[in-house]
Structure formats: structure tokens, C-alpha cells
Amino acid sequence: MVKLADLENRKLKNISSRYLKLVIYGIKDILRNPSNLGKNKVQLVNDYINTNETCNRFKHQSRVGENLPETENNENILLRVSIANKQDPVTNAKIEFHNLLIEENFSESSGFEGIKILKFHNCFFKGSFEIRRTNLEHLEFKYCNFEEDFILSDINKMKNLDISDCVFHKFKVFRPGEQMETVIQNSEFKEGLFEDFPQEQRQRGTPPKRRSQKINLRGRLQSSHLVFRNLFLEELNIYEFSNQSDLTFESIYFEADKAVVEIKNSNLGNCHFINLDFNKLSKLEITGTNVSDILCSAVQWKYDIESGNDRLKRDVHRQLKYAMEKQGDRVEALKFQAKEL
User: Which residues contact 110 (CB under 8 A, 6 or more apart)?
Assistant: First the structure.
């Protein structure tokens, strides 16, 4: 097994401040330029990298979805990073991983003491990825592929989750952070669930703890099954977004007269809205967007929809009337027809 870097229980030397930025690149980059590890702030233990021969065997993917070549002899690249120093602990570390094939399971046991920002760019995970009860505040994924389970759970201190151009086979976020802002752009979710509290808790009538969320959708959603369920939303922003998949918002709770939903320059496709009360929103804006194919069940509408001007507003009401007619909801169709005139 090839160990790229094992910093667990290592002392940090020559740290001039309590903010540390550590960037770990692929084996090829490290062997050719060890200074990438942070100019002696963290020392790489040479005996964890075999020889330059390893460099020649290592290959990384360049595009999401591209088959990643196996390393020779099925050798694994194991990442275990822990920033911990009892005498002088780091409290605001930033760590980035670039261009890596990670075959081992990546979990909270990898150690995230003192780390606030964690980023993965162009990484391929063959094992599962799981983080629970972490102090991380910012988590970012760009051009990453996850072949097994991806789980974030009880991430109470998380403030930002950014996902761009990634592929997930089994994705689950459960009990996200208070007022966490999530940005999803141009990604695929074979099985995706974003949930605050379990369905059983809602059915029992147990009042869940409110953790207001901000959800931002951008780009394309295709070949996906993604569900947002049992969430308290402060903001839902859908900008320049095209839904070509199975996208569902179910049992979403809006704080009365405070929550905002903005949908601009998008195509919602056959997005499902189930058990929502848009009437509680302080603002519902739909501008330059195709909503004629949406599917609704147990939805309370806010009829004062903002759309930029009267012509655009009439067009939105016309589309919603058409959507309601296709579902056989004559009552709602007539209400939107009255607004259209």
C-alpha cells in the first residue's frame, strides 16, 4: 500500500500563526515539488513515499465521469490527515486535496482537529466518504466522483457546502448546520437525499429543532434522483438552472413572512413540490422560468408572485394554470387564470 502522507500525531513546526493552509497534491506533484506541502510548515515524512517509480505509476482523472486507470499492482493511495498539536493547537486550518485517487474509506476517523476549511478538487473516491459531528465550517467539492456512499450527518457547525461538477452514487446529508448555505451546480446524484429530521419524527408530531437552510441550485441536474425533504428553508435560490431529472421538494417549512424563494432564468422540468406552503413566504419571485411541467401535491400557493413586470407575471400565471390543468386541479387552475387576466 502506498501512503501518500500520514500526518497523524505529527508535530507542526515553524507555525507563525494559528492559521494554517495545507495543500496536498497528487504523488507526482509532491515528488517533483515538495514545497507544495506548505514551505516547511508541515514536514513530509519521506519513508511514506516509496520511490520516484511511484510517480510514474500514478495517474489521475481529468474529467468527471472518466474511468480512472488502476495503479499498477492494485496499490492503494491512503490519505490520513490530522492537524493536532496539544502544546500549540491549530484552530483555523485550511486543507485542500487535488488530483487524487482515494481507494480507502474516507471518514471522520481521518481526523479533522483544528480544521475549518476542507476542499477536494478533481478527486476520485472508490471507497465511502463519511463525516459526522465535525467542527468543519466549509466543505467544498469540485470535479469529484464518489463510487460509494457519501454521508454528512450532524454537521451542526457547517456554514457552507459547495458542490460543483461532481458525481454521487449515494448521497445523503442529514441534520445539516444551522443557517448552512448549500450550493449545488452541474452535478449528478444517482440517489440523493438532503434531510433535516426523519420522516418518522414529523409523523409523530415531535417538534424538531429548527435549523434554517439556504439552498442554491445552478447549472444542470441530469441523470439524477435528488430529494430535499423535511427542511426549514430561509432561502431557496434557483438561478440559470435546468432540471432534466427527478427533483423533489417535500415537506419544506418556511418561516412565516421571512423566507424567500427566487427562481430566475431556469427550467424546472417536472420538478415535484409536495406539502409546501408558499403562502407563508415574504417573497416568491419567478422570472424568465419554465414552470409549466411542474407537479404539485398539497401545495398552498402565494398568488402575489413577483416577476419583474406585468407581462412576465401574466406569463407565469398562465404556465401555472396550465400545470394545474394537466394535473386535474381545476380549482387552482381557475385561481391562476383569474390572475392571468
Answer: 79, 80, 81, 82
